[in-house]
Amino acid sequence: MGAHHSHSHDHHHEAARSFNSVFAIAVCMTLVYTIVEAGFAIAADSMSLLADAVHNLGDVLGLVLAWIANWLLTLPARKRYSYGFKRTTIIASLANAFILVATSAVIAYESIYKLFNLTAVNETIVIVMGIIGIFVNVSASLLFMRGAKDDINIKGAFLHLMADALILVGVVISAILIHFTHWHWIDPVIGLLIVVIVLWGTWGLLRDSVILLIDAIPHYIDYVGVRQYLHDLPGVTAVHDLHIWGLSTREVALTAHLIMPEKKLSDAEFREINEKLHHEFRISHATLQVETGSEDNPCIRMETC
After folding, report:
1. Of the ranges 16-20, 38-42, 89-93, 131-135, which one carries the lowest mean pLDDT score?
2. Which residue in 30, 53, 126, 249 could disulfide with 38, CB within 3.0 to 4.6 Å?
3. Distance between CA atoms of 119 and 263, rounded to whole angstroms?
4. What residues make up the domain containing 180?
């Protein structure tokens, strides 16, 4: 006997749909700025500004991937794809992390090269472009703030844009220092510092993406608490074959066998359990199988789970 909880599906689709326009605005804003920034970085001969432009390009590609995945999240399930295309959000967040690692390697190489081949920097261009960039990135990141806590795909977009804004603060400060001290080595050093910041921020995204991809329990799910809650339900003597995994960056699924020798669960009780799992443990897609646990027909998963 099983039960499904599906009232939150429409909510998830609606939430994903509401972010499609946000992605469109953010992609347009950051792409236009990145192209202009790269042009001025070459004109100013600034490694830190060019490093940020390359990083921004990685972010634009990441935003596009996240946008596509977010759109696929809104598509309904079909015959062969019974869960829809939810998992593409996990692949997008993983690709996003790899893009950032790749762009960081390019920035590091260019910064080290410039450190040993110092050239003058046009600080005025760097300062003006940096201040414009801070405004663009903060504005774009605030669009994603609402969904960042519920979806690592949205969180990835939010963190990237906020990191860009912070990096540009460093770029502007370095340009001001160069203007007053004429220490041109500051520019490539800031470029290398950007790489460290980017890689530090990317690690969390990479870890969370891999956890979801291999069907591990998402880090924010209290597995022990969920197991204890199911075990403490009236009439339950054991919980077997409990599995919790991420269907997408936004939805978590659960399956479990409840051993109940004396009673069965009513539809109202199933609904109550599902609502508790959803609101207290953030599990939106629960399937429960009730068994009596008789010696003649023992739970086949009792030993393996």
Report:
1. 16-20
2. 53
3. 80
4. 2-213
Looking at 213, 247, 279, the residue that finishes a domain is: 213
Hey, what are 119's tokens?
């050239």
Residue 254 backbone dihedrals phi, psi, to 5 degrees: -140, 140
Contact criterion met (CB below 8 Å) for 61 and 98: no
Whether residue 82 sits in one domain with residue 200: yes
Q: What is the distance between the alpha carbons of residues 216 and 238, in angstroms, rounded to a whole number?
A: 22
Report the predicted TM-score, pTM, of the whole model to 2 decimal places. 0.67
Work out the average pLDDT over 66-91.
77
- Split at pLDDT 50, 70, 90, the class of 245 is very high
- 148 band by pLDDT with thresholds 50, 70 and 90: low
Estimate to the nearest angstrom the gap between the alpha carbon of 107 and the chain centroid: 23
**Chain centroid, CA 159 distance in Å:** 9
* pLDDT over threshold 50, residue 249: yes
Cα–Cα distance, 157 to 60 (Å, whole number): 9
- The one-letter amino acid code at 33 reads Y
Measured CA to CA, the distance from residue 212 to residue 74 in angstroms comes to 19
Task: Tell me 77's DSSP state.
Answer: P
> Does 111 share its domain with 24?
yes
